[in-house]
Amino acid sequence: MNITKQQVDALNAVVTVAVTKEDYSDKVAKILANYRKNASIPGFRKGAVPMSLIKKQYEKAVLVDEVNKLLQESLNNYLVAEKLDILGNPLPKVTEDFNWDAENYDFQFELGLAPAFEISLDTKKAVKKYKIVAEDSMINQQVERIQKQYGKMIPKDTVEEKDDINGNFTNEEKGIDAPASITLDLFKNKTEAQKFIGKKVGDVVTIATKGLFEDDHDLMTYLKVSHDDVHGLDIQVDFTISSISNSEPAELNQELFDKLFGPGKISSVEELKNTIKEDAENQFAQQADQKFISDVSEYLLENTKFDLPAEFLIKWLQTAGEKQLTTEEAAEEFKKSEKGLRYQLIEGKVIKDNNLQITFDDLKSFTADLIKKQMAQFGQIDPSEEDVNNIVARVLSNQDEIKRLSEQAMSVKILNFYQNNIQAPVEEVTYQDFIKISYGE
User: Fold this and answer.
1) What distance in Å separates the CA atoms of residue 414 and residue 357, rounded to the nearest whole number?
2) pLDDT, tens only, 157-191
3) Cβ atoms of 177 and 265 closer than 8 Å
4) How big, in percent rounded to 5, are the helix, strand and coil portions of the chain?
5) What is the Cα gyration radius of the chain?
6) CA-CA distance, 119 to 109, in Å (whole number)?
7) CB 16 within 8 A of CB 3
8) pLDDT of 86-106, one tens digit each?
9) pTM for the full model?
10) Which of 1, 92, 229, 237 gets the most CB atoms within 10 Å of its CB?
11) What angle do CA 384, 385, 386 make, to 5 degrees?
12) Which residues, including other chains, have CB under 8 Å from residue 406's CB and lie 6 or more apart?
């Protein structure tokens, strides 16, 4: 067998696989001999059917099957041996006058080749790192929420200022059906807030959404509408009151501190606020990290230029799925997936060039850390290494879990690489400012 490659251009090639009779004849003969041993044809004893009859009935089908198997195996081996980085799969070139009655065959395959390109991590301050700080007002609000949560709840008949009101927001036209717990100080529009005063359980209060909150993004939280819908949303919503209550705030004393964090861990209001601040900023850091890697990804997409074998990929997409696509449908599919493909190539090059591959030891270590964090949430602060390793082994016996955790581990590895290798200015912002930066006004 002989395999040759003709380079059409930098992104396209044609591979020709020349198959001779010597490549397949022994395998075909062996299979036909086995057929003969087991063939049951009227008028002949089992195993005594003339080979001429076996060949007449089965030889063409066996030959085609064996040549195709040989083609697939040899082509795959060739691509690996030549280290050809291809996009999609090889596409067989159709030969109208192909003759299976010949003894030697030539098969041609079109290849779409991955482009060669370089990546620069010099973002020239186009990308920022955000450090989200918890403001005193946010911390004080959390302290008040804790006091309310652990305080004594007092059911009420009618709504007054500072009451907790449970109910349901609805608007049939917008498909809103959102249970919510509110207090009247949430509303920027005090005229709408006053509509609740004096209302009872079962009453329906109709309010306008325009300017209802200080930040329109709060509509996402309370009405469960999408980000695209919140800006300037101007509709009427009904709030059906299901319960009214007020609370006698819990005292900020050692009993409450021990209930929240365990005996002796916190012993003052100042320590409580510091802990709240640290926990909040740790959670914010995860959101800031996600924005950083998203911004880096967008920067690399915009500033890493390379061509793709578009014509080949469109042709490949026509037959890649379960449904055959027209050229126009495949072109549209390529247009929708091009950005994702480009980033896959960029990310793959970053991983390859910087040896960021995930080893199985990396995966075990990453999984063990996740498990320890989860166990800590349930009070198991110092689990034994044996217990953790046993859980890791069970988790990693599931192939779906291996795939999911490998993707998470790779995301962390890429994030750490970008953080260590991209000189980005750090800007401190409040959480509300970060939301505005991320989603716009």
Assistant:
1) 10
2) 999 988 999 999 999 988 999 999 999 989 998 89
3) no
4) 50, 20, 30
5) 34
6) 31
7) yes
8) 999 999 998 878 888 888 999
9) 0.72
10) 237
11) 90
12) 358, 363
